[in-house]
Each structure stands twice: as structure tokens, then as C-alpha cells.
């Protein structure tokens, strides 16, 4: 029980069809398919903050979506212990014409919470997001930072066992970034597990226990944050003295 | 949801054979989520309109005036209620057509939400269906003032009207779920469905009545019942008039069988294809 991982990916592979033929739904893999993930073996320990870095298109977000259950792996298996919540850019997926409060309710219900639970959590959400009166304005009037704040407020209030964060902290202002960082560390303190995709290496080195470097759908390196960042620059052929 | 402690597979889908039953159960197990999604969909329809929901009634009411002008005044139809028959036909048929189009497009329209979280995706077509039933029921309120205008006495059979609307939506959802995954791959499906809905408008007793077809007789009167929408539309008209439905049992059987068979096929295909389909979104 003690060393049971929070997330376990075993030899996960995922391809995306490139040709839009109806055959794609019936036939198996086609030679034209785009390989998004291949041979991903990864265990995320409980209570760990795992960072994921890599160039655009290296498979970071796709891996997070496999962890969240959005895509089922074509080969291999993905397992989790506990509830997984993915926090990605809020706003596109939700309703611009509904208010922040209604979107929070919607988001909560999407993540499997009941009406009563959400009503209980609402004050905390409003407080953490610092939206004040804006909470009853339509979401379309929000700035991207405000949306990110609402998203993080909802997801962290739900207290998921495993939180996946896809590049949303970057848009908040510095004060909110500090607050989010603290929130994430609090969650981990309370036995939560966080997987974080981000390009802000400063944030990553300060909160991650380990960092995964992804390249072309493969895992290139897993380990100490500084070493992973060095691996990133090395693999891209950038000669850089990493000085934290 | 399994408790913390055991490793479980992420994002497991409903096995195909259990899909017809499991998808139906989502209506109760995911009530709160569905009510939120229905609210989003229904409210979204009338955003930025100051008359809001009133439009669901105003539109058919204005149509009724047009139909009255067209059928009773211009073409001198003897049946004084003809405009009402057409209006009821339009409401019931639109419920079918809009439900079909909405369920077929339910995955593509919700692509961004699908990319964000995993939950049973059959919720999307179910939500579209429930939203359209609600909107059609609101539209059907227009028959209440018409009962007064045309001095028709109210009977218990008025419940046929909402019943027919539910039936119309039920005819659509199975077919819609069957096509929804394919629409993710090729959106031609959506365009084809739009044509089917347009053509079906004329092939179904919307601008005419089942009784007219029977009176004329011939081949078409015999094969007309193959169209599963004949029963709901005729049912709603009898509900308004307060007269019993005099269609044979084969019509009822066919309509019922179509609903059940299409639901079973549709939900099974949906369950087995949606995983691959969402990759195309």
C-alpha cells in the first residue's frame, strides 16, 4: 500500500489518425497514422510533484490527457489510484454566456461532484479566485488570467487525489502565481499528487520533485529537475550554462 | 468511482453489450451534470435575446398566423383547423429534426470539453435530447391559446401532445447516437442529416395529415406507416382535438420497435466507436 503509485503508465502508445476516412473507425492502425506517444513507462509516486517539459508537440499534453482518461491508449495500460482531475485552459470548454459561478458548478459537476458539495465549496472558490463580484458576470468578460484563477480555484477546492495541470499557471499575474504555487505544495502536503506541464522552468525547479523530459513522443529523461532541464537543452543542441 | 488504495484503469468505457442499459442509467446517475449541461444548452440558445424563452412560444404563434393566412384564407381550405394541424406538425417534426441534428453533432460541438475531462460521453447526445424536448414542450404551449381561439374543448387527451413530443425525440436519439462518432471523422454526416431532415419534413405528415393520405388511398397510404414519425404527429393532433387515435396497432408496434431497436443499435455503436472517434476532434 505504501509504495503504490498514484499513476502508472506501462508501455503506453497512442497514435492519431491523419487521414479522415471512416475506415479509421473500423480498421486498425494505418501507416499514415501520427505516433503521438510510444513506449511510455512512467510511475508517479503518491505525494509527488512531477514536472513535464519538452518542445511543443513532444507529447506532453497528450500524455496528460491519457492520464486524465480523455484518450485511451492504443497499446499498454494506464492506471491510477484515486480521482484524477485535469486542469487545462478553462474558457474554451465552458460556457461563455454563463456566469463564473455557473461555470464553477458546471466544472464541478463535470468532475463528478454533486450540487450540495459544490454549494458548500462555492465560498472558498470565490475567495481563492479573488473574483469577488465578477463571479456573477458572464465568463466571456473574464481575462485569461481570471479564467485560470477560477479554474485552479475550482479544481483545487475539489481536492482531487491526483491533479494534472497543463500550462495554465503561466497566464496568472505574479501574485497569483505565488498563491498557486503555495496551493499546489499544500495539496502535495495533504498526500495529493501533482503532474505539471509548464515551460516556466523557474517555477518547475522550485516545486517539482522530479521532471520528465519528453521528445518526439518518448520519454527522454526522468530525474532531478536540474538534470532534466540540462537534458532538455542538450537534446535540442542548445549550449547553455544552466544557472538556477 | 473506486476508492483510493487500488490501481484502476483510467477512463474505462462502457462495454458494448451493456451500453443500451448503462447509457439509459446515466439519466439518473449523472443528474446534476446533465441538468447543468442542459441549462447551458437551453440558455445558450437565447443568450442576448431580451425576450428570451418567450421566443419558443412567440415563433410558433407567429407561424400559426402565417399558416392561417396561407391555408384558410388564401387556398380556401374547408378545414378551419388546418393551420393548427400544420403548426402541430411543425412543432413535433422540429423536435425530431432538431434532436437528430443536435445528437449527431453532440461530440463535435463539445470537442473542447471532451478534451478536458473524461466522463461517459453518451451524456452529450442525452443532454441534446433532453434540451430539445424541453424547448419543444415550451413551444407546444402555444396550443393553449389556440384551443381558446378555435373554441376546442379540452379533454384528457391533451396529454397526447407532450407525449408525442417525447416520442418524436425518442425516434431521433438512437439514430443520432449511431451517427455521432462518424460525424467526428467526417462532418459530411452532419450535412447529409440536414438534408434528411429537410426532405423528411415533406415526406412526413407535416403539411398534410395521415387522414388525407388514407382518404386518397393507393400505394402511398399503405407504405406511409413505415415512416416512424407518422404516429407522433398524428397523436399530437388527436390530442389537441380530443379525439381517440384511430390508427391500427401495427403503427404503434412499428413506432415502438423503431425507438427500441434504434436505441439499442445506436448506443452500442456509440459505445464501441467513441474512443476512436474523439481522436479526430
Task: Report what the structure shows.
The complex is a heterodimer of chains A (244) and B (281). By secondary structure, chain A is α/β, with parallel strands linked by helices. Chain A has a domain of 71 residues: Orthogonal Bundle (Helicase, Ruva Protein, domain 3), CATH 1.10.8. Chain A is 36% helix and 24% strand. In chain A, strands 5-6-7-3-8-9 form a 6-stranded mixed β-sheet, with helices on both faces. In chain A, α3 crosses α4, α3 packs across α5 and α4 packs across α5. By secondary structure, chain B is mostly helical. Chain B has one domain. Chain B is 71% helix and 1% strand. In chain B, α4 packs antiparallel against α10 and α9 packs parallel to α14. The two termini of chain B are 27 Å apart. Chains A and B meet through α2, β4, β5 and α3 of A and β1, α2, α6, α9 and α14 of B. β4 of chain A pairs antiparallel with β1 of chain B, so a sheet runs across the interface.
Q: What topology does this entry show?
A:
The complex is a heterodimer of chains A (244) and B (281).
Chain A: E1 7-16, H1 23-26, E2 34-44, E3 49-54, H2 60-68, E4 75-80, E5 84-87, H3 100-110, H4 115-129, H5 144-157, E6 162-166, H6 174-189, E7 193-197, H7 201-207, E8 210-215, E9 218-223, H8 225-235
Parallel strand pairs in A: 3-7, 3-8, 5-6, 6-7
Antiparallel strand pairs in A: 1-2, 1-4, 8-9
Chain B: E1 8-9, H1 19-29, H2 31-45, H3 54-74, H4 82-104, H5 106-109, H6 111-114, H7 123-140, H8 143-149, H9 160-185, H10 188-203, H11 210-216, H12 218-223, H13 230-241, H14 249-277
Helix pairs in contact in B: 2-7, 3-4, 3-7, 4-7, 4-9, 4-10, 4-13, 7-9, 9-13, 9-14
